[in-house]
Amino acid sequence: MSTPLGQELRRLRMERDLTLEDVAKGTGITLQYLSMLEKGVRKSVSFEIMADISRFYGVPLDYFAAFIKEEESRQLSEMEIMLWKAINDKVRDEIYFKKGNSIKNMFSKLFR
């Protein structure tokens, strides 16, 4: 049984008349992983993967947050919320304002 996020990913793909292979090539995410996301087999998704998917479909990362929140049964910690917001802001800047490698730079600073 698919998850709300999986259903939305499939809807976006079908709406654009794309195959999973097209999305895999466009995002750099494996076909198998994308299939597992759509089917709801893979429920945990990293920010990096969601950023790649967001960029590929041209929709804000915030858009997918609503579908992910539907799936989560636990509350996010304040740190997770802060990180989610920071990453969303950076992805929005990269997608809409073409500011470059801000996410890559942010992660390199966080994980030194």
UniProtKB/TrEMBL annotation:
Keywords, ordered alphabetically: DNA-binding
Signal peptide coordinates: none
SMART domains xref list: HTH_XRE (SM00530)
Ranges for domain HTH cro/C1-type: 9-64
Gene3D superfamilies (alphabetical): lambda repressor-like DNA-binding domains
Pfam families registered for this protein in UniProt: HTH_3
PANTHER family per record: HTH-TYPE TRANSCRIPTIONAL REGULATOR (PTHR46797), METHYLPHOSPHONATE SYNTHASE (PTHR46797:SF1)
Name of this protein: Helix-turn-helix transcriptional regulator
